[in-house]
Write a structure and sequence with these properties.
With about 250 residues, the protein is mainly α. It contains nine helices and no strands. It has helices spanning about 1-15, 45-65, 70-80, 90-105, 110-130, 150-170, 175-185, 195-215, 220-240.
């Protein structure tokens, strides 16, 4: 549901003008009078671009977890392309870093590599927010879903934790980052001998989350990105894992 909403939001932002409809002509100032300021000038336009990029990056993450590397690379290319406006003035260097890191995703050859690069892209956004003192305000997050001994319940908790980790990177905030790690560092479910590969991935995710949790007081955004990228890669490997098929007999 959420990924669908992300796609709708991006389609709305990037939608071209409908064919057969003329664009409104530019208003001309009356003699001796200046035009009123464009409501999307300056900070307002910057916020519009930030929200669009935010949705795109989250969509990239969802696509990678599903193993859809080519689709994720197409979305990353959208972020890497320079926009005609705004000029980004005081944010120019940070915007260039965001575009460069998005472009790096387009050159990724594996899902695991792209996961690491996507986390670095999120860290670039967070670094810009921290350096410019324009930290996004996230809604007070809901409590984590109940921890029940079922796959569906555990996946709901993992999705909740991923949202908190994202907020911890993009917003440079310790509390949501720590909350997400607490959930992922919990003991994984027993998968049984039949799917030992997924059991191993679950233990790897737990190990990485516990290690990142121990570094919370002094961890930089780049260090968080490295940890988050590793965890995303593990999630993608688990979600796309398929049992080996027995060879067919002649």
């Amino acid at each position: 549901m959420r990924s669908g909403l992300l796609l709708v939001a991006m389609a709305f932002v990037a939608a071209p003008a409908a064919p057969g409809r003329a664009e409104p002509a530019a208003a001309k100032p009356l003699p001796g009078r200046a035009l009123p300021p464009d409501p999307l000038d300056g900070d307002a336009m910057m916020r519009l671009h930030m929200h669009a990029s935010f949705d795109l990056i989250r969509a990239i993450e969802r696509l990678l977890i599903s193993g859809k590397l080519d689709d994720a690379k197409r979305f990353a290319a959208t972020i890497s392309e320079p926009a005609d406006a705004p000029a980004h003035g005081p944010w120019a260097s940070q915007v260039i870093l965001v575009r460069d890191r998005a472009a790096a995703i387009t050159r990724a050859t594996t899902v695991a590599q792209a996961c690491q690069l996507e986390a670095k892209l999120a860290a670039a956004c967070g670094s810009c927010h921290v350096e410019t003192a324009v930290v996004p305000r996230f809604r007070v997050y809901p409590p984590a879903p109940p921890d029940l001994p079922a796959i569906g319940a555990r996946m709901a908790r993992h999705r909740w934790a991923a949202d908190r980790l994202w907020e911890g990177i993009v917003g440079g905030a310790d509390e949501p980052w720590r909350a997400g790690l607490e959930v992922l560092a919990a003991a994984p479910l027993e998968w049984g001998d039949g799917i030992a590969a997924r059991a191993q991935l679950a233990r790897q995710l737990q190990h990485d989350a516990a290690a990142a949790r121990a570094r919370v007081p002094v961890e930089s955004l780049d260090a968080r990105a490295s940890a988050y990228g590793a965890m995303l890669s593990t999630c993608a490997a688990c979600h796309t894992w398929k049992p080996a098929t027995a060879p067919t007999r002649p």
